[in-house]
Amino acid sequence: MQIGELASIAGVSTRAVRHYHQRGLLPEPPRRANGYRHYGLREVILLARIRRLTELGLTLDEVRDVLADEQGRDLHEILVGLDHDLARQETAIRDRRARLAGLIERAEAGALHADDPVSPETAALLGVLGRPGTASSPMARLERDLVALLDTAPDQQGVLATMTALAGDGEAAAEALALHRRLDELSEAPVGDPRVAPLAAELAASVPPEVVALIADQLPDSLDTPFAGAMLDSVSPAQAEVLRQAIRLLSWPR
Question: Do 126 and 189 sit in the same domain of this protein?
């Protein structure tokens, strides 16, 4: 039989057959005088076996190992590994569906925020940052946006976890909102406003030592990054100066 007939019997495409030839999974028979390759029952059986293994989720490299192992030892180990992977995927899917259910419920109640599709830990922190009074503060909203942004940075998960653990302190949240409102008051102020330096010192002092310890190695060069430039450009000159001075203060050993 020719390649098209072989592929049809095994339920694969001729392109897949040629790919298996290239990967060394399916031996390529010699061409006959008419220039066509002739496939027999052996190739049909082998191709069907390849299809079954790939449908189970084995990679082509794993299929090659299984086909080379007549005793099936490699296949057993690979299948056990696949089963473990599927179990992890099932757990992840259940967790994602639970999160989706909560988001759908909030959406149906008209209470869904654009930043709500974050990790549960970050969602808890955003819940604290969204306490009454924060919605009317532009700087508080900016902080919320930055926290949501951190959720996408794998190297900042430790910072987020620490912030979440400390966020339950209602007194600290009230103090943070007071600082945000004072920053809001600088929206039209010049860079040299006498309120800038004292507010920068208070802002730096308000950052918990646990958080400072986690970001200490990032602070010295943090003002020179493109992200810092974009963030500082998003606020007024006086507000940007407060943030610059606060970061410089945090960079010095306490």
Answer: yes
Does pTM surpass 0.85?
A: no
Residues 203 and 247 in one domain: yes
Residue 145 φ then ψ, to 5°: -60, -40
Tokens for 223? Answer: 């003002």
Q: What is the pLDDT of residues 103-123, one digit of tens each?
A: 898 788 887 777 677 777 777
Average pLDDT over residues 136-162: 78
Domain range for 91: 70-112
Looking at residue 150, what is its pLDDT? 77
Boundary (domain end) residue, out of 59, 88, 112: 112
Please tell me whether residues 63 and 82 are part of one structural domain. no
> How far is 215 from 218, CA to CA, in rounded Å?
5
In a shared domain, residues 122 and 242: yes
Of 112, 146, 174, which residue sits at a domain end?
A: 112
